[in-house]
Amino acid sequence: MIHNVRRLLFAPPYLYPFPTDMPASPLDILALAAHRDDVEQTCGGTLLKMAQLGHRTGILDLTQGEMGTRGNAKDRAREAEDAAKILCTSWRQALDIPDGRVENTWENRLKVVRVLRQQRPRVVILPYWKGRHPDHYTASVLGYEACFLAGLAKLDVGVDLNVAAGDSPAIVIPNVERASPSPRAGRPQDIRQDAGATGLLPHRPFKIIYATLYYDVRPTFVVDITEQFEARFQALMAYKSQFSDQEAGKGIFPARDEIRSRIESMARFYGMLGGITYAEPFIQKEVGLVEDLTLIPVKSI
Amino acid sequence: MIHNVRRLLFAPPYLYPFPTDMPASPLDILALAAHRDDVEQTCGGTLLKMAQLGHRTGILDLTQGEMGTRGNAKDRAREAEDAAKILCTSWRQALDIPDGRVENTWENRLKVVRVLRQQRPRVVILPYWKGRHPDHYTASVLGYEACFLAGLAKLDVGVDLNVAAGDSPAIVIPNVERASPSPRAGRPQDIRQDAGATGLLPHRPFKIIYATLYYDVRPTFVVDITEQFEARFQALMAYKSQFSDQEAGKGIFPARDEIRSRIESMARFYGMLGGITYAEPFIQKEVGLVEDLTLIPVKSI
Amino acid sequence: MIHNVRRLLFAPPYLYPFPTDMPASPLDILALAAHRDDVEQTCGGTLLKMAQLGHRTGILDLTQGEMGTRGNAKDRAREAEDAAKILCTSWRQALDIPDGRVENTWENRLKVVRVLRQQRPRVVILPYWKGRHPDHYTASVLGYEACFLAGLAKLDVGVDLNVAAGDSPAIVIPNVERASPSPRAGRPQDIRQDAGATGLLPHRPFKIIYATLYYDVRPTFVVDITEQFEARFQALMAYKSQFSDQEAGKGIFPARDEIRSRIESMARFYGMLGGITYAEPFIQKEVGLVEDLTLIPVKSI
Amino acid sequence: MIHNVRRLLFAPPYLYPFPTDMPASPLDILALAAHRDDVEQTCGGTLLKMAQLGHRTGILDLTQGEMGTRGNAKDRAREAEDAAKILCTSWRQALDIPDGRVENTWENRLKVVRVLRQQRPRVVILPYWKGRHPDHYTASVLGYEACFLAGLAKLDVGVDLNVAAGDSPAIVIPNVERASPSPRAGRPQDIRQDAGATGLLPHRPFKIIYATLYYDVRPTFVVDITEQFEARFQALMAYKSQFSDQEAGKGIFPARDEIRSRIESMARFYGMLGGITYAEPFIQKEVGLVEDLTLIPVKSI
Amino acid sequence: MIHNVRRLLFAPPYLYPFPTDMPASPLDILALAAHRDDVEQTCGGTLLKMAQLGHRTGILDLTQGEMGTRGNAKDRAREAEDAAKILCTSWRQALDIPDGRVENTWENRLKVVRVLRQQRPRVVILPYWKGRHPDHYTASVLGYEACFLAGLAKLDVGVDLNVAAGDSPAIVIPNVERASPSPRAGRPQDIRQDAGATGLLPHRPFKIIYATLYYDVRPTFVVDITEQFEARFQALMAYKSQFSDQEAGKGIFPARDEIRSRIESMARFYGMLGGITYAEPFIQKEVGLVEDLTLIPVKSI
Amino acid sequence: MIHNVRRLLFAPPYLYPFPTDMPASPLDILALAAHRDDVEQTCGGTLLKMAQLGHRTGILDLTQGEMGTRGNAKDRAREAEDAAKILCTSWRQALDIPDGRVENTWENRLKVVRVLRQQRPRVVILPYWKGRHPDHYTASVLGYEACFLAGLAKLDVGVDLNVAAGDSPAIVIPNVERASPSPRAGRPQDIRQDAGATGLLPHRPFKIIYATLYYDVRPTFVVDITEQFEARFQALMAYKSQFSDQEAGKGIFPARDEIRSRIESMARFYGMLGGITYAEPFIQKEVGLVEDLTLIPVKSI
Questions:
Q1: Are A27 and A35 in contact (CB under 8 A)?
Q2: Nearest-CA residue of chain A relative to D105?
Q3: C59 pairs with which residues across the strands?
């Protein structure tokens, strides 16, 4: 106990949760991806775990999934809302960037900048910058550059709070159950609302990490999702238009079993890297910073 | 607070400080290096910081430094003791492996195994496995293989507690001041003594990390030594036979200033990587394991 | 048969199975590893598949496993024989190199050279050259250098056909069932026997590949073991002294289930890389050589 | 023949030449490059070899070469046709993307998508994604993303069969001699024509590989072009406007000799990597998949 | 002079300063960067050193810095002129590309092509192709592709000598003191002026190198700037609107000292890599070419 | 001339040819390799070029080649002498380390240390540290560690000037023609002789580089050997016992032609990397240090 108090008193500045000259942030973590159901596959367990730790989490889907072989954008919007509830996500929205044509243009960057300035996340999860689907790797660069631009004081992106005003309003999930209230719950929400009224204040996330599950690359770190694995699988299964049709065509259980087997094997593989059961993999570009050598996890030998 | 309590109650097994089926470990951290004054240069600040956090730290020098251009083994033994005190190290010893001829033989491995089984460290710091000095990179492989062997239950290495019985007995530094008693202080020391009486029980360190300051390689993480930088420099200066002769020959201040400038620049360079002032760099082979994304340090952007 | 004739008539020279100035080789493939049960874990499915294709396969264990926590060398010898039968291996032997002390000495290299000259494999599977266990990575270098030495015409290693004459004679598995006779069945066995009578003739394997399952590295290629996965798991379970004791201690089903889950996840992970179900990963140092672009497997996109 | 029947009966699913739900593909292999004469330099020998194996091959040049220092687009069109005949190519076309300004725009991607859906190649050869000429590396990304888009069922790119309707109609080379009829010769061509009549059906190539000869990178594999080397050199020499002017200026033989020496040395260098005489180098992103270890070519030692 | 004559007589062809069919180049070295003050931070010492060796150096800033948190474009233009004088730069200009929005468009490439054809540098220094600020890494690709395009004989970019005709005319620094006149001083300036009058002749720089100080990557080589370090720091301090405001806000000396400490540590770190005191790091893509092994600098051991 | 004076007056310390506290060095460059004829293949052209520049060059063969398939140690000694003359080498010697069994033992290291202290080279060329032949890569590590040990002041290796006293005395090539006398010709040879009389003084080479031609790795730099290519090929052909037998067996011209073709293609390949005709490739571990950007060779674009 005393040890922990000392830590709080003497911790170096880089451990403070937020710079003191920034308004409060309504989202602790924002995951950005190209398509609805990408986040569920690459970092859904982590998002749920963070929500269970008391953090406010959000998902920004760049497209509305209209190019998917099965279903349509409307179906996927409803399914995405269901999945968001399972993952205890506080906020979810889809931009109107065309599916199959995510491009790193100035206009698209500004669309993401507006979301970042409104939702003000401390941590942003992006797709990895290599991959099979061009939308995925382009979303990574687009997301990164938007994070950079969002912090430029002289960049004015207007006051409009509605990012995509069409048929995909931001989903606000009302009764998410979390293990404990967010540690930042006491921060004045009105500051942000003022910010909204007078224009979107600059904001730059403290941390950007990359979800690498779609790509065979060695992660910097993994997150233990053993407790969240089942819920995360349910979140993926919420995309019924994707998986039920498929089941209908090929016999319902084998297809679902095959999907589950693959997802489980991936999670186990990364879990084994970390000496645990199920995990999701991430890369960060920065070096790590360790405060106490005896607390570094993962057995060496 | 509640958050922290929850962590202790629910944390997954890999976060427990020690496997419950192992006897208590008298050292939390052991740094191994080829020559006296290597540890002072590569991870002295980190060792001091760990001691200040309440951990018991130790240093194992493989050789006695008899091939150094200046001074002799006796001088260096006295200086090493002085440096160990400055770094608040609880234990230091030099093996009798010939300086300039550190070889990864079975006999040398067993010498290190005996130390590991006696001192039972949770964390071992080794030199990086590449470098300019053959003793350094060979010490890295030798140290790693000894860590592996030390855990083999069927490997019997006898009961002798004195590693190198000659003129370099283990230094026991009596009155090291630490900020707080070790969190493991209450563990029964007699268990280890029994172990000694009945033979050295197997032991495998939980974590092996590599100090990379001697080599230009990107570290996995750095440790903030801003508060420890001055003491670490004093620990290096304790090797008077190395640095005073030099000063005498070339004018005392310039030489000392040049050394200090280089050491400071290295520490600052690695500090900048971590967004802090002074740091020491390390590599770990394992992937990381992150419990809470919002607590990852080092700003991304 | 017709298939093979066509190959001999039209294939370019580098595809000829064997240099014409070498005697026939009784083994098509030899897997070398440090410990009994290593081969079962890293390439057992591949060995079985090759036997089912009609090839003669063999296993050389460098040590007799006397340092294993559970069981003893005698138990393991019997278990290794059982596992070899399950994998349809034609030949298996253990050298007398001490467990935990595999060293790349001249003597050890010669022991392996003798085996290579007797068994004359076309393909040798070695452990990967990095790893957690020093015996594994040392076995890789030792095996490679023995392959090189085995081909030196002027290196005389005597005529003794018994490699380790003690209590581990070569296991000859009598009634292995294979899908078809080896395509090399017609080659004159007596040539080799003459070679044995007059000294061991030089031999250099055509191909050396590295089994990487113990290490997280991207493989050059994988081998589909979907059909062999169950038998390979049974081969591993044949090491009852390793796995039954463990089961006894911790409840029999969970432990076995956990082992199976891990092995299955690894196999699935590498299977997914190749677009199949279960696979084992390998690295080759050489570049590939492709005869027909339309026959390259594994979908790109 | 028997060989092929066995393959179809027993081969695992990933070895089937084509997904059964796709119409027949008129091209087996399509090589895409930025400029006329690029393909001749990087993979001309491989294209010829594939044609000699009975495959239908094609070349898509993105530009018409109007920025080349010597000659003009009209000359180069005629020369490209000559080169295509030498390489026994079944189809060749040049798009109207400006030379020196190959950009990865939506419009350019669609131009390539139309070609892919018309020609429906199983294998696509792209330039490597790094290089000296911006057109080369941009063509690589543009080609990859077009391959991805071409497979999206909901992407409609119209019915127009003429890609670039201007002065560069698709070259149809009438009397190409091939060693044997294409194994797919019996497939109903009318299926494709129907597809053309009702719109271009989605198509995704099974395999994408990258020709790396322009860049000093270690290839994944090489293709033996010893038998094709002379014809490939003639195909390059067909670009008389490029090489004759140069010869005129500097004395005809030295220049031609110098070009030949360089091309021969490159081919030999990659040949030596594969243990053969002349070769062309390629990279694939996927891991390999090996069915029989004893058939892996290229000697290890 | 004598030295130069000898070089022309005996040097191998690749050492010739310029292709003989190109007009004289008024700039020996041009550094291109996204923002005013970038060059000062990454390669200012090198530019000054080159000027002191007698070379004509220039700086092209792509933007006018209007997005900087402090100051405005006009202030920065004046400060950039001051810094250019301190670095003895012969020419400096800022394009009108928007700050924070450097994009690799055709238009932007042509803007840079015009500068390259006017200034005709032998060496171009670009930012490294990875980095934190999107403007930096995009400037790297934009600059590279412009260097390529500038050499295309058939690309006509007009005759206008004024690149950005607005409020940022090219700075011509009148009385730069250099240690000696440029070795190319005798070349006819009028040739270039003629070129201007009749259109901008094609030009391709002989050498492109990348300044890597903003990114933690191992350099190919470093340049010793021990003698230039102070002046380079003064050049950076010439940006008063950047650094004075900051000082005003936080107490003047600590801020300036902190900046100096960081810059000094970086310079020292790279200096240590080269065995010298202060250095700036660079990458070149090409392999090196060494004429005399005994003249290779930097001690190995 | 004037240029050179300026260099000596103003050049930074690291460019001085030799530390002032070291005795004169009789060899400028020493190439070390495992077998006679290795040096001829990997860096023979460079050695000849250095001799033609006026440097004293030497070759140390670790073994006497008794395991070669053809010829014997006596033949190879005579051939090595012939080759050394062709390469204008001043000194050549073979140690008595067994062929096929080059091991990095203390004894072998001391054998090399004695040579280094006698011959005192400024530059040492070692084989690359990876390769096909174990003798090659072991020679690399052995040579590096000997270079390190040779500089340890307290390491006494006796006064014996004859390294291998048996049937392979040092070859002293009397009448080597060099373009000019060595620039170090005026240094007092007697200093070295005194050193010999009183024991071998410590010596550490300034530069260690690695000849990489045997391994497919990208070099740090190449050396232009266009003028030396023919002589280097003759030096290799001096090993008649290697190449004549082969010719006898297979018809004399084709074999020789094939060898020449391979060697020429390798030399051309590396030449093309450097923009020249023939070259040999090398790696250095250190970063480069460039004095004048306008003198960096090898065109970028």
A1: no
A2: A103
A3: C31, C92
Q: Are D281 and D222 in contact (CB under 8 A)?
A: yes
Q: State pLDDT tens for residues D37-77.
A: 999 999 999 999 999 999 999 999 999 988 877 778 888 99
Residues of E in contact with B218 (CB under 8 A): 216
Q: Residue D178 and residue D89: Cα distance in Å, rounded?
A: 10
Instruction: Give how far Cα D139 sits from Cα of A165, D97, D146, E148, E152, Å.
Output: 37, 11, 10, 16, 18
For chain D positions 3-62, those within 8 Å of chain C (CB to CB) are: 3, 6, 12, 14-15, 17, 28-29, 46, 50, 53, 55
Query: Which one of D29, D287, D299 has the shortest CB-CB distance to C293?
Result: D29
To the nearest whole angstrom, how far is the Cα of F54 from the nearest Cα of chain C? 40
Counted across chains D and E, CB pairs separated by less than 8 A come out at 18
Distance, CA of F118 to CA of F109 (rounded, Å): 14
The radius of gyration of chain F's CA atoms, rounded to the nearest angstrom, is 19
The neighbouring-strand residues paired with E58 are E30, E91
Q: Which chains touch E (3 or more CB pairs under 8 A)?
A: A, B, D, F
pLDDT digits (tens, 9 = 90+) for B48-99: 999 999 999 999 999 998 887 777 888 899 999 999 999 999 999 999 999 9
A and F adjacent (3 or more CB pairs under 8 angstroms): no
Beta sheet of A57-63, edge-to-edge order: A171-172, A91-97, A57-63, A29-33, A123-127, A207-211, A279-283, A221-224, B288-289
Q: Fill in the amino acid letter for F115.
A: V
- CB-based contact (8 Å) between D299 and chain F? no
F85 near D CB under 8 A? no
Strands, E, within chain F: which ranges? 29-33, 57-63, 91-97, 123-127, 171-172, 207-211, 221-224, 279-283, 288-289
Q: Which amino acid is at D120?
A: R
Q: Which residues of A fall within a CB distance of 8 Å from D149?
A: 100, 134
> Model pTM?
0.88
List residues bridging with D61 in a β-sheet.
Answer: D33, D94
Residues 115-144 of C with CB under 8 A from F: 144
Amino acid at B188: P
Cβ of B67 under 8 Å from any chain F Cβ? yes
C-alpha separations of B213 from B38, B40, B52, B128, F144 in Å: 10, 11, 22, 8, 21
The distance of C17 to chain D (nearest Cα, Å) reads 8
Integer CA distances (angstroms), F82 to F79, F179, F234, F236, in order: 5, 20, 10, 10
Query: For residue A132, what are the contacts with CB-CB under 8 A and spacing of at least 6?
Result: A214, A215, C301, D148
Q: Is residue D245 within 8 Å of residue D70, measured between CB atoms? A: yes
Q: Which residues contact A177 (CB under 8 A, 6 or more apart)?
A: A88
Would the pLDDT of A108 be above 80? yes
What's the CA angle centered on E116, arms E110 and E119, to 5 degrees? Answer: 140
ipTM value for the complex: 0.84
- Per-residue model confidence (pLDDT) at position F235: 97
C145 touches chain F (CB under 8 A): yes
Calculate the CA F91 to chain-centre distance.
10
Nearest by CB: B148 against C66, C103, C134: C134
CB of E103 less than 8 A from some CB of D: no
How would you label A151-173 residue by residue, b for 16+ Cβ within 10 Å and e otherwise? bbeebebeeeeebbeeebebbeb
Least confident segment among B295-299, D14-18, E260-264? D14-18
**Residue ranges in chain F modelled with pLDDT below 50:** 1-24, 160-169, 175-176, 181, 183-198, 247-249, 252
Find tokens 């253990």 and name the residue. C94
Whole-number Å distance between alpha carbons of E162 and E285: 32
State the Cα–Cα distance between residues B34 and B21, nearest whole angstrom: 32
